[in-house]
Amino acid sequence: MRSLGPPQPPRPQAENARQSPNPRHARSTMPSPQPSALAALPYAPPRDDGIDIVYGDAALLLVNKPAGLLAVPGRGDGKDDCLLRRVQAVVADALIVHRLDLHTSGLLLLARGREMQRRLAGDFAARRVHKRYLAVVAGRLPADSGTIDLPLAADWPQRPRQKVDRLTGKPSLTRYQVLGHDPVSNRSRLALFPETGRTHQLRVHLQALGHVIVGDLLYGDASAASGADRLLLHADQLRFLHPASGHDLCVDSPAPF
Q1: Can you give the CATH number for the domain in which 145 is found?
Q2: What's this model's pTM, rounded to 2 decimal places?
Q3: Strand, helix or coil at 54?
């Protein structure tokens, strides 16, 4: 845990800075894939080897969610096993504040008690919680940093997919910074800073730019999973004011890839 001032993006490691593209005119260079078999696969949560509590006190917990584990109970048989249930077996007053996708790993913030849940949920709603994700994507982005400003909506005929929809979509904003590019695999490592919290926001925004996240079979084709046994997306940092003390907190979780 660290106490820091306003969040700053990490220093880029790519070779030459280039002008950011206009995100409002960003269009996908990839065909929209059909819903893959990924959505129909049976739920197979990882074995419960104990809870990885990165930080905890009387007001809150920050826990590492493994990829493949639901954040909260889902619908259907066998989907009660989730991170929230596992944490509550150890810390009975833990309550959910936000969520991560099933296939995304990383930091999940839980409140201890209703009052802390109310305060932290208000901080998320007011965008006072600063989130950073790490991702590995296909290809090389045209700029070392930029902003993706594309409205998102549910793609009802292809649920659970989301889509860019300029007519009815909700405003969705993501900042990104390139950390490096591997010319052998032609893949790039990114830091992602979502300013909004739409469902699948990072995955859809990057797919719309033509740089699908490696391992994303819902928004990419089979080549997206080449050499990856999971979605390469990890919530690696949360920064916020502690709801009880008011102190700045910055908690990190190194990506496992």
Answers
A1: 3.30.2350.10
A2: 0.85
A3: strand
Q: What is the DSSP string of 217-242?
A: TTTS-GGGGTT-SS--EEEEEEEEE-
- Residues shown for the chain: 257
**DSSP notation for 130-196:** EEEEEEEEES--SSSEEEEE--EEE-GGGTT-EEE-TTTPBP-EEEEEEEEEETTTTEEEEEEEESS
The catalytic residue positions are 101
Q: How far is CA 98 from the centre of its chain?
A: 11
Q: Residue for token digits 């502690």?
A: 242
Range of the domain at 95: 41-252
Confidence category of residue 124, pLDDT binned at 50, 70, 90: very high
- Looking at this protein, which amino acid is placed at residue 166? R
- Tell which residue, 234, 160, 209, has the closest CA to residue 28: 209
Instruction: Quote the number of domains for the chain.
Output: 1
Pairing of strands 105-112, 233-241: parallel
